[in-house]
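>> received
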Amino acid sequence: MPGPENVEITAPSRERYDEILTPQALSLLATLQRELGARRTELLAARGVRQQDLIAGGTLDFLPQTKDIRQDASWRVAPPAPGLVDRRVEITGPTDKKMTINALNSGASVWLADFEDANTPLWDNMVTGQLNLKDALDRVIDYTAADGKQYRLRPDGELPTIVARPRGWHLEEKHLLVDGGRMSGSLFDFGLHLCHCAKRQIDKGRGPYFYLPKIESHLEARLWNDAFNIAQDFLGIPRGTIRATVLIETIPAAFEMDEILYELKDHSAGLNAGRWDYLFSVIKKFRTRGREFVLPERNAVTMTAPFMRAYTELLVHTCHKRGAFAVGGMAAFIPSRKDPEVNATALAKVRDDKTRESADGFDGSWVAHPDLVPLCREVFDSVLGSRPNQLDKLREDVSVSAADLLAIAKTPGEITEAGLRNNISVGLQYLAAWLGGNGAVGIFNLMEDAATAEISRSQVWQWLHNDIELADGPRVTRDLVERIIGEELAKIRATPGADLDEARLGQATVLFKEVALADDYADFLTVPAYEQMP
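>> returned
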């Protein structure tokens, strides 16, 4: 079929791109953009209005206009979909060829194939990632490393269910223009994956499944639901075939969990406790509100903080009363095959994290490294036994108020010079890697992605603009941050074996200062960073 009119690709074509950017796929993308683009813009503007209200002293609360939905005990989401009944271990990672094979061979129940925070939106990443998923489903994917090691897929029966995560509503795809304007990055990633992989997944007895990131309201969930219906109708797929798990990773969404499940009801597969973006959202939303809303340094904030306990317990309770899955978040600690002490520490911390989640009633949880799959499975096996999930654990003991979700000031911990230095170093190193095309980076034995980098730079911004004094040092000022940036850059350059691109490190430094020091706060560091990409 011929391609749609007024659709322009502004990036060069490479080998096999035509297998993804087909006339049918481009027609679907154009349809989605034309039908939903204006509403997407309106909803992003609504985020800005809500932010201005918070800056002016407003607060968040459960919505009075949707009280009937929350209080109606009768409705449920769709029954569990094939391949999503047992979600006890989910591995997340980008869609490059090596990670695709490693994730699918990991022994996990689900692979979150990430086009978002563990990825960077280089045009080549976005298109070849789609190719890798198609090739994996066709079993024609393989990879040979520089040392000659070969990677090939295990038999289909041993592979996890693929769940793709498109970019958030705030991001655009600048290389695809529809009627002269940029395509929504969310709809681009979603539409291409659905077009090429839906039938392949259905033929394997599963289906086209998605994780939906960065949602801030039930109206944004409604927009996704409409996208699902438009795309299913376009491709001749029955409505309800798509299933989506929403990441509750913004604090406004925590007040609308019931409503988000309701909007996606026939397409809903549950909610995920996206802890790192959630912390970023707390900082961002209340960044100007003084010490009452200032968190301790990021490594001191644990899932046992009162406001985090309220959020996760409410998520399990809300999901299970609606027949939806509750999926735990990602512990950032990564194992080491070279350092036994680092490895032991990481395994102990991940075990504690997963033990708490399984006891709270979560149906499964995330890991970011194949070596953590057996540990997570062991912990959830000990609670689940032969059961596939904990949907029967209703947590009727849970009662969470708006004040509980906003009890940020009760978080124990302090802000030290070491914490400030860590935030600065992580921000610089991560941005340098991101600009080079790598969105999941091991730094100081933690797996950093865009969410954790957002926490790092946002805390620096908040501490600077709220005149925070370090527990062991002076007040955070621009001069202090500038000095530490210089010192941390010297350490990065002096690190043995560091593979540095000086141009990118310089670019990252300029960008970090822009998003951490400027008076005007950038809502997402990836937005200005994307403009610096080819």
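>> The first helix runs from residue 23 to 55.
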